[in-house]
């Protein structure tokens, strides 16, 4: 059944006005998913050029949702995209937010500086959630100005299909806030996965990253091509995607940022930069990656 995406709805979580910081691959998806499920959404990025790219990404997502989700129409999803406000003014973007979801690049000092600014600008009652894939929320909590209202809310790429939302607090997170955010996740069509303690990589990436690292090592050693490594995994396990297909979906810039932060994977970071990122191949839907778009 087609959703009426022109109306807002009463929210049992109380989190109706959502601001997403960062409009990259996942940021744009989070913003669209929230708006698709009736939330009032503002997407923030640093400048007009980034917001222009964001509008293009939201337009593509409208087409994808209409094609992928039964009962949706292009007209409805186009209205969803158009309803998302875009802003490069952080104070304006977070002024009325009930929930701010941060999806800026995976760099600790950058995220800490963002939260220090948020602490100054956001309302006292606003909840902050990081979508960080690799950083523990406890590495950021002290600069948020509200550690009891701060936690991680982690989404997988293609969130309308791979609809897990991992909720992970710190020892300082208020249990009521934790449950409030878990309810919010359910309201936007996600399956909340409640983590009982902090875990680098959450559940999903704790399982996924060793696979991706093993595939990278095989490629760097010249053991086999990305296509044959992927084929082996798909045939041997019945999985729909191989590790290099997953890399393309995750985005090679994200893979590069993660690899750059680990001394053990500097060779992989350099390989990605020279062979893909410097050539404008950033992954699926962004110039191609290991596979052409």
Automatic annotation (TrEMBL):
Residues 18-197 form the 3-hydroxyacyl-CoA dehydrogenase NAD binding domain. Keywords: Oxidoreductase. The keyword Cell membrane does not apply. Residues 201-292 form the 3-hydroxyacyl-CoA dehydrogenase C-terminal domain. The keyword Manganese does not apply. Transmembrane segments: none annotated. Gene3D superfamilies: N-(1-d-carboxylethyl)-l-norvaline Dehydrogenase, domain 2, NAD(P)-binding Rossmann-like Domain. The record marks 154 as: Important for catalytic activity. InterPro entries: 3-OHacyl-CoA_DH, 3-OHacyl-CoA_DH_NAD-bd, 3HC_DH_C, 6-PGluconate_DH-like_C_sf, 6PGD_dom2, NAD(P)-bd_dom_sf. It comes from the Bacteria. One of its GO terms (molecular function) is oxidoreductase activity, acting on the CH-OH group of donors, NAD or NADP as acceptor. SUPFAM superfamilies: 6-phosphogluconate dehydrogenase C-terminal domain-like, NAD(P)-binding Rossmann-fold domains. GO terms for biological process: fatty acid metabolic process. This is 3-hydroxybutyryl-CoA dehydrogenase.
